[in-house]
Amino acid sequence: MTEQRLGVIMNGVTGRMGHRQHLVRSVLAIREQGGVELSDGSRVRLDPILVGRNAEKLAELAERHGVDRWTTDLDTALSDAEDALYFDAQLTSVREPAITSAIAAGKHIYTEKPIADDVEGALRLARAASDAGVRAGVVHDKLYLPGLLKLRRLVESGFFGRVLSVRGEFGYWVFEGDLQPAQRPSWNYRKEDGGGITTDMFPHWNYVLENLFGRVEAVTARVVTHIPQRWDESGDAYPATADDAAYGIFELDGGIIAQLNSSWTTRVHRDELVEFHVDGTHGSAVAGLHQCRAQHRAATPKPVWNPDLVERTPFREQWSPVPDNGEFDNGFKAQWEQFVRFLHDDGDHPYDFLAGVRGLRLAEAGLTSSREGRRVELGEVAP
Questions:
Q1: Which of left, alpha, beta for 373 (phi over 0: left; psi -120 to 50: alpha)?
Q2: What is the average pLDDT across 192-215?
Q3: Which residues pair with 86 in a beta bridge?
């Protein structure tokens, strides 16, 4: 069996997402399984080098996970021609210059989102990658979740008929840090450090909506900072300058209306931390991270509004589970494998820097809509 080596420069792996999802559950899991198998039967073995600012943390991570290489000097890592792929999971505020350096060094790019601080920066990266002839991909992890894969199956089968609307609820209560430690890093709540739920989640909603239902044509949003003070990792109080909740109405191509609430200040009364309720002329479905339940037109009950009587209809029990019909791998890992195959001309990877630009543009439009109290229309993204 033929084996190829792919050196991967992984920047930002000491952070929660970079460590847990990308290093451990993706790159190291792929290494453990013997690499990414290509259609001709050969394999691509991933050989990571860990990059970050904290030498002590990098050394500990490398030792714990059996990784031979790490460095605090990004320029040194980029200078090695044997490492062809650069991955970025740093803070958004430092992402653009690092990716720019990686492109200049001739590396292919795979990155978390948002890909830059603003649309202009994201477009600069898209143009630089195109001019350099390198391949670029942006993480679109939620499209690879079991619940959304089942939802996509329903969409592609024509189950819904004409899709009318989408309602989404995402979020949970993130503790302020005084009563209990927060579940998210404190920079998420500082605008000056690139924090805010709008810039975090609207790029996700953009690719979910445009890949399952249609391009977002306009947005009306209200962005709020509900909790004005939080406590950081050291127990010190700090002002929360970034938004912790965003309420949006998205108008999609084809007349579909999507309403999506994103909040770190809500207590969960759902089956999963994110759920999408889709209504169509022929059927409806509710999809979460893992589960998806559907109700066809012919099986739809006929409720009658009567507030004087206690409702006895078991509405939830009248929805049918959409079967797995297969095994689902970790969504982050699945997209890593797809991108690695794409680098070796073995399949497509449509989620490029322009997809990242569109996600960031939606976040900026949402912030503008909230700030100016108006509906914001979105045109085409010029490359």
A1: left
A2: 95
A3: 9, 109
* Each residue's pLDDT tens digit, 139-176: 999 999 999 999 999 999 999 999 999 999 999 999 99
- Note the helical H segments in the chain: 16-17, 29-32, 55-65, 74-78, 95-104, 119-132, 146-157, 197-212, 331-343, 353-372
**CA 7, 8, 12: angle at the middle one, nearest 5?**
155
Collect all residues with Cβ–Cβ distance below 8 Å to 273 and sequence separation of at least 6: 170, 171, 172, 288, 289
Distance CA 66, CA 28 (A): 9
Question: Is residue 369 very low, low, confident or very high in pLDDT (cuts 50, 70, 90)?
Answer: very high
pTM listed for this prediction: 0.94
Residue found by looking up tokens 């959409």 in the block: 322
Tell me what pLDDT residue 93 has: 87
Q: With b meaning 16 or more CB within 10 Å and e meaning fewer, what string describes 234-266?
A: eeeeeebebbbbbbbebbbeeebebebebbbbb
- Mind listing the pLDDT tens digit for each residue in 88-106? 999 888 999 999 999 999 9
